[in-house]
Amino acid sequence: MPPVIQLIDDIHAFRFGAIKHVHVVYNLPLSVQVGVRPTHWMFAEAPNLVLELGIHPLSLICRLVGRVRAASTVVSGEVIIGNGVRFFKTWASSMVCERGTAQLLLSTDAEFTETSAHVIGQDSVAYLDFRRNTFRRSGSTPFVRFDNLADGWRGARALFSQSLRNAWSTGRGMLGSRIVHSTQVQSVQNSLSDFYGAVRCKRSPLIGAAQGTTAVEACEFVVNSAMSFLAQNGRSA
Q1: Cβ–Cβ contacts within 10 Å for residue 180, how many?
Q2: Which of 74, 124, 137, 231 is the most exposed place for a label (fewest CB within 10 A)?
């Protein structure tokens, strides 16, 4: 997604130093689908929600701080859906990874969509808002006594500029002068473009089998630790 590309560009430009911690929120209003479409694979078993939706934020976590080494997960919002499966609306996981720590909140019980990431580095922090397609980096400035004011001005200007660009793009799409693409569609297109570009140039794609395997392993860590949580509390799934 565009905010992730901006983040990675800034990391490569040495504006962050080492990434220490990543916190990703995927708070989605899927309660209606849970009741109406229980035949979807995502609702066939309790862990499938993590493999269907959680793999997206987990892939970002793995990209930034490496493979998951350990996870501690709690689940809540238990319901029995139409196909008789026990479904947990909220998954909250804390992870130790190769190069740092991470947290994930995955929820389908939202009234308001919130998909975002907070990335903490040695020299800067970043706020990625996937719903609004914006990116903001906050770090020290040369203005020691007015550091917060300078940082606030820089952040506000960046957010306004990005929001204006997004509104312009949407407006052009409504008028038919361009195709309106969601950031999720842009993400898929960018990934496909890089893959086929790698095939043409005979190089390894940025996102390949190794990265995919790492993301699935992260899902398994989250699921297994959630099952341990349920077992410790006298419930099984």
Answers
A1: 12
A2: 231
pLDDT in tens, 140-184: 777 767 778 878 888 888 888 888 887 877 777 777 666 666 667
Q: Which helix (H) or strand (E) holds 162?
A: helix 147-174
Mean pLDDT of 204-219: 91
CB 192 within 8 A of CB 206: no
Q: 2-178+208-232 is classed in which CATH architecture?
A: 2-Layer Sandwich (3.30)
Q: Domain map of the chain by residue range?
A: 2-178+208-232
Nearest alpha carbon to residue 103 among 114, 118, 125: 118
Neighbouring C-beta atoms of residue 183, cutoff 10 Å: 17
- The CB density around residue 7, as the number of other CB atoms within 10 Å, is 25
Count other Cβ atoms within 10 Å, centred on residue 104: 25
